[in-house]
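call fold(seq) -> tokens
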Amino acid sequence: MNHSNPAARSLLFAAVTTLGSGCKPPPDAPERFEELCDYIFGHADDEDPEAAIAGLDNLNRWMEKPGNLESTAEGYTISKLSQESVSDLKFDTSQAPDVSSLIGAAVAVRHGATLKRMAQTTVVDDWQNVAEGQYEEYRRNFGNQSPSCFPAKGCDELSATSFSKSSWAGLIEVDSKNKIDFQWFFSEETNNWFLVHRSWLTEPATVDPDRYDIDVRAQYFLAVTSKINGKTVRTMATWIDADYGSIPISEDGVKNQIVDSMVKQGKFVDDWHD
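ret:
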């Protein structure tokens, strides 16, 4: 593989840490959905994948319980990201944004495609074409990495930066710069593969015209794609810290907009596969 295998990385990490005087075990993964999104986002880039895998397994177990997947398909309020979950992220600003004002929501979308096809769509395909009409411009830069290795697990980690320009109701233009991580995780306990996709604004978005006084200070995104009860499910979570200025919108309204945006993203993926 072009990148280290998660299981091998775990074994190597364990071998090295046993040389120390004391080993700190990974924290117990939460079992509640509201907390799992934060936990998985925060542990996805751990050197030892054990904690992230425990969280991913718990996410699947929660989704497999009767009624949970169906209720999450309608949208779910989730816990704020902890400061610890964003402290190691790379930003173009001098320090990580404050998480105290984040508003978060999540949704789960069932897809007819395989995990490999979902990886092809979310990682390799041109997202401006997948999400047709949503962006005036969308560019992703993988540096010297080739994303084509990822769907078939020829590599299990990829990082990229992105720039996007989009329009809100034809009145407001938003320019965003993001850092993106894609990772494969495998759970030996449950024999499941998980595709984890994280992204975050590396600096506040640029919003024009400024007469509306809109300020998008931070935004974080998590998507976990896995098999649940034999079906491909993509669970998405978004956290945003924004001041909407002269646009009248409540916190519940923001959450509904977050959910609608992610549901729409799921529809774009399905339409792309048809």
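The first strand starts at residue 76 and ends at 77.
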